[in-house]
Design a protein that fits this description.
The chain has 184 residues and is α+β, with helices and mostly antiparallel strands. It has one domain: Peptide Deformylase (Alpha-Beta Complex). It has five helices and seven strands; from the N terminus they run αβββββββαααα. β2 and β3 form a beta hairpin. It catalyses: N-terminal N-formyl-L-methionyl-[peptide] + H2O = N-terminal L-methionyl-[peptide] + formate.
Length: 184
């Protein structure tokens, strides 16, 4: 399966909440495979469907010694402990800022065959579950930062070589994927 371009900060699909998956079919399987191939290629911890231009509630993870995916994910914290470590995003290359997240979470959703999936996670996997679910809700980790951190991150973005790049966020990839996956 192909490695797809990752949508970059500024692309509206990254700020748009996704639609729940209702069809567990070959198109969903292809989307999950494309997401996994892309996250492996990019050496990321996780990747959400909007990051490749799909408006569906699915993400993949490859971190903490585990790989998998969640369709229509939900999570809840386990306890009140929080971590505050550097977090980055494949859609915001070169930017990493300390971001507060729950230390442990219980995640649940479906697999690509609509079977229930649930697991507990800590460390980087707990962080990935929260980060990728945020993507599905149209939230970027920048929105989780304190104002001073956000200003610093935005300055880094504005001075980056990729900022304003039309090649990936022009909608061409999104339109092609919409035809093959049925996503908007």
């Amino acid at each position: 399966m192909p490695v797809l371009p990752v949508r970059l900060f500024g692309d509206p699909v990254l700020r748009t909440p996704t639609d729940p998956v209702t069809s567990f079919d070959a198109r969903l399987e292809r989307a999950v495979t494309d997401l996994m191939d892309t996250v492996r290629h990019e050496d990321g911890a996780g990747l959400a469907a909007p990051q490749i231009g799909l408006s569906i509630r699915v993400f993949v993870y490859s971190c903490g010694g585990r790989e998998g995916h969640l369709v229509n994910p939900e999570w809840e914290p386990i306890g009140d402990d929080r971590t505050h470590v550097n977090e980055g995003c494949l859609s915001i290359p070169g930017v990493s800022e300390p971001t507060e997240r729950f230390a442990r979470v219980r995640a649940r959703g479906r697999d690509l065959h609509s079977r229930p999936v649930s697991f507990e996670a800590d460390g980087i996997l707990a962080r990935a579950v929260q980060h990728e679910t945020d993507h599905l809700d149209g939230i970027l980790f920048l929105q989780r930062l304190a104002p001073e951190q956000r200003r610093s991150a935005m300055a880094q973005i504005r001075s980056s070589s990729w900022f304003g790049s039309a090649g990936i966020s022009a909608g061409v990839v999104h339109d092609q994927l919409s035809e093959t996956t049925g996503a908007r």
